Amino acid sequence: MTGSDASPSFRLAYVPGVTPTKWVRIWNERLPDIPLTLVGVSAGEAFAVLRSGDADAGFVRLPVDGADLSAIPLYTETTVVVVPKDHVVAAVDEVSTEDLADEIVLHPLDDVLGWQTPPGKPAFERPATTADAIELVAAGIGVLVVPQSLARLHHRKDLTYRTVTDAPASRVALSWPEEKTTDMVEDFIGIVRGRTVNSSRGRQAAPAQPKQERKAAPAKKTGGKGSGKPAARSGGKPNARGGAAPKRGGGKPRRRP
Known about the structure:
By secondary structure, this protein is α/β, with parallel strands linked by helices.
């Protein structure tokens, strides 16, 4: 493990569709002295950003394109087809790729599903980006199959989406350069994996300073001044012999002469 003192902050890259809010919040709670900087990147440039050192780690889409990068798979996304709200597909809950056989299925250049053979009919030209493809769907030129997070990212009121049951799925992972597994990278791995703040594999939070103990209040004196002994319980005054004088009205009555 290498040291992390050289970096004034932790730089976290993320590809479109990934929402790192939860993990960033936990980082800020546990390591408020180390600012976390978010770096938005396209899916195609994410690995180059990690290799160049412009980010310490990043949320990427698998597969990782090299043995020099480590990766922890996090989750697999649902794949959906984006269609106009008045499209026939909008009347059902889910479809298969066969149901799209007669549709023009747009295949943007930044596609993240890695189709070997996309379903449906190919468009005359491939859109440059997913955002461009969404505009074409809204224009009624075709439909688009993407991970659900991208459908939400490019949400439009005139479009909707439905699950595609047998399409390839995109997997999201946390990745970083193997040779740059710094203390801060280990800290973030611990957060993503759900380790507690006291985990031995993550950075230990500074222990809370113990509160100053309250001084015990002096015991109330129950005896005479400086005596250290409890006062006599008798209500009478002490007599010459040191005994307590009898109370008034006490003792036997005297006989009259």
